[in-house]
Design goal:
Number of strands: 6
CATH class: Mainly Alpha
Order of helices and strands: EHHHHEEHHEEHHHHHHHE
Structural class: mainly alpha
Number of domains: 1
Oligomer: single chain
Strand content: under 5%
Shape: globular
Radius of gyration: 27 Å
CATH topology: ABC transporter involved in vitamin B12 uptake, BtuC
Largest sheet: 2 strands, antiparallel
Number of helices: 13
Distance between the termini: 6 Å
Length: about 375
Amino acid sequence: MNTTTTPRPQQTPPTGASSRKPFGRDVDFLSIVLEGRAFIALIVLIVIFALLSDSFLTFSNLVTMTKHVAYNAILAIGMLFVILRGGIDLSVGSTVGLSGVVAGTLLQGWQLTLFDIVVYPQVWFVVIAALAVGTLVGFINGFLVTKFNVPPFIATLGMLYVARGIALLISNGTTYPRLGGSEELGNEGFLVLGGNLLGIPTAIWIMVVFALVASFVLRKTPFGRWVYASGGNERAAALSGVPVRKVNLRVYMISGFCAATTGLILSSQLTSAAPQLGETFELNAIAAVVIGGAALTGGRGNVRGVLIGAFVIGFLSDGLVLVGVSTFWQITIKGAVIILAVVLDQAQQRIKRSKNAALAAADKNAPGAPTPPAAVASS
């Protein structure tokens, strides 16, 4: 019996990767552009407004605009935690107003009817009380979503009205002026939050601190990993031992805390507290998160992107005012920018899916893949 062995084809280096290069280069370039779209948009805005207005790039104007950005950025950082978890918080604007009213009420004097006295708490107590109220609003949001399975949109929409209504009830619809306090009453110092530190507005310093802390928490702590995991796939995260309910509760508390901080800063800067403070702020916060590249479905986003998104919204708004664009057009343009950001995000995700599918198919069909044993013929 003679056996003949069919010669094994000569091995050649895998060519799948090289055959994919032209496609890969095109997709990679487009992906890079889409990935950095917020930063590119910010640069374009700076160039355009610098050409249209000589005062846009002056130091004083940049500081003023960055201070305005800080309000939205602090709100957006809290909103980022909620959106990473796959939720939404529409109550942050009302929480801004409520925390300011609480601070104003305490600084104006807390009437204790039972003892027929008026108490003037020190500033540190006022700040803690206002932050506690904001955190409590966040806790209620998280409790409704976690314990009663109320959709985040509905729960926080309801709290938007509840918090605003409580602020109006406490203040009777009026504004608390003159929050500077007095030396005799021992409640001075509140205006520091809206003042300057080393020549830079305190709001900017607070924004930097919040950004650093949030970035550390999301990147370096178990809680941050839990937020991403539960937002990406809640069921899988729960099966992996992630305390999904606790994470859900805490992200809303963080959002409420950030909103209360913004309310304190604004009330300090304005030296007055109005129950209408913070109206529509939730829209700017959500816009900053979306423009920064976070996915509304959860599991994707970072603090860096949120800061860039806040700068885009802030510089766009202030730049339009500076060049004299109508308020109606400002609203229209801001809405168009938000829609464009979402469209580009969806395009980026489609390109990623197409690229991954193409790479998987190319690897499967690459000539360098393992071949079956040589055929053996018997005669």
